[in-house]
Automatic annotation (TrEMBL), chain A:
The keyword Transmembrane applies. Keywords: Membrane, Transmembrane, Transmembrane helix. This is Uncharacterized protein. The chain crosses the membrane at residues 6-23, 35-55, 67-85, 90-109, 129-149, 161-186.
Automatic annotation (TrEMBL), chain B:
The chain crosses the membrane at residues 7-25, 37-61, 73-100, 120-143, 195-216. It comes from candidate division TA06 bacterium 34_109. Keywords: Membrane, Transmembrane, Transmembrane helix. This is Uncharacterized protein.
Length: 201, 225
């Protein structure tokens, strides 16, 4: 394999190296890549919102389906800009209230559903060590986060068991996160050595 | 006062209650209402994104105007932002727009859009590289902070070590049963704690949601009259 002649592969490779240069110390190449990423990410977000929301959910229903109900969220959205005018800035609270209200309305039933599923899954179907560990772990973890009672005596002992379970879970999560990052690192090195330099197949 | 505080609280209460009620109504009209509300939420959220963009643009313009240290990098942010947004809006997101194909007749509908080029060869490599950088810093941070000073810290350290080693061939080489130990940790003690935390989170969400709908919690409206 030979070194890549693709312009875009070179761009990706040089930007990857610019970011890895931070391992030595903070430098202008890293800063350039960092700020470039910020700009591109925001620009990408604008483009996706434009096509997936403004065109698909506002323009098309309004122009082709004559669905004038979409004027309501459009108006609510435009009210967000009232915050730039001091005398009517309070109007921006209405769309915020809509987002928060509708969001909570959506989350209450789904949270209850999720909650019952988790409680149901915790109930032991058979008596074995695994089921016992899960029941004890769930209850003790909940007790650890229950602050209405002082963590003394029996409650204190149960919450101590809870923190033991929590530490195991955090350790597992940390181990998983390290593995995910290392796997990303391997991916980048593979890209540099294979796609860009062509050293490995 | 009514428009400033009571109306927003009413809006959140009405839409909150309506969306809870629709969950219990198995009629197609209820499903349509649910889908319409989801669309409305997405539309209004798009405008909140624009507010965030305005704030970022203003911040970087101010930095350039006042020539604060590193102001040159703000120029990069603004150029990258406007060029990407321009390419995305006029060139198309996932397939080229008709306008783009009119300007460049050689472009076919199946061609990759300019936005996708910036995403695949600039944004995605940079994002994954930045995340992979954390592999180095997490290792050094863990070394400094996870010193086995207490029983809990030792437990966290041991679990992290077992899970990390048990997921790579080296772990299996050291002790053949290590992947099974990892599996057991994930399936029982880890699952129990995660479930406890998740149940707590859901209870918190329900309590806060009810407070918002009843108008007890109004901090999201901000300060002032």
């Amino acid at each position: 394999m030979a070194i890549s002649t693709n312009f875009w592969i070179w761009i990706a490779a040089l930007l990857t190296l610019a970011i890895y240069s931070f391992l030595y110390k903070d430098n202008p190449f890293y800063k350039f890549a960092e700020y470039l990423l910020v700009g591109i990410s925001i620009g990408y977000g604008i483009s996706i919102y434009w096509h997936n929301t403004i065109i698909t959910k506002v323009y098309n229903p309004l122009v082709y389906d004559k669905n004038f109900l979409v004027l309501i969220p459009l108006l609510l959205g435009l009210l967000m800009f009232s915050r730039f005018f001091k005398n009517v800035s309070y109007l921006s609270r209405i769309p915020i209230a809509f987002v928060v209200g509708a969001g909570t309305g959506l989350s209450v039933p789904s949270s209850f559903e999720f909650l019952f599923k988790q409680i149901y899954a915790t109930m032991p179907l058979k008596l074995d060590i695994g089921s016992l560990i899960i029941v004890v772990g769930v209850i003790s973890t909940l007790v650890y986060f229950f602050f209405s009672l002082e963590h003394k005596g029996f409650v204190g002992k149960v919450s101590k068991v809870g923190i033991t379970f929590i530490m195991v879970a955090f350790g597992a999560a940390f181990g998983y996160t390290i593995m995910a990052r290392v796997s990303l690192f391997i991916g980048r090195i593979q890209f540099l050595l294979s796609d860009w330099l062509g050293i490995i197949k | 006062m009514f428009v400033r505080r009571t109306l927003p609280l009413l809006v959140s209460a009405v839409f909150g209650v309506a969306l809870i009620l629709q969950f219990f109504v198995p009629h197609p009209a209820s499903k349509n209402f649910y889908n319409m509300m989801l669309d409305w939420l997405i539309i209004v959220s798009a405008f909140t994104y624009l507010i965030a963009v305005q704030s970022t643009v203003e911040l970087h313009f101010t930095k350039i105007k006042r020539k604060v240290e590193g102001w040159q990098y703000s120029i990069i942010v603004l150029i990258a932002l406007f060029v990407t947004a321009f390419l995305g809006v006029f060139g198309g997101a996932f397939m080229p727009t008709t306008l783009w194909m009119k300007i460049f007749p050689s472009v076919k509908p199946s061609d990759t859009t300019p936005l996708m080029y910036t995403y695949l060869y600039m944004q995605m490599p940079m994002q994954s590289t930045i995340f992979s950088l954390l592999a180095f810093y997490m290792a050094s941070a863990a070394f400094r902070s996870f010193r086995a000073r207490s029983f809990d810290a030792t437990l966290l350290l041991i679990t992290a070590g077992i899970v990390t080693l048990g997921r790579v061939p080296l772990g299996e080489f050291i002790y053949k049963g290590l992947p099974d130990v990892v599996e057991w940790i994930l399936k029982y003690p880890n699952m129990a704690a995660q479930r406890g935390i998740l149940i707590g989170v859901q209870l918190g969400i329900i309590a806060t949601s009810i407070k918002i709908i009843l108008g007890i919690e109004g901090k999201y409206l901000g300060g002032g009259k």
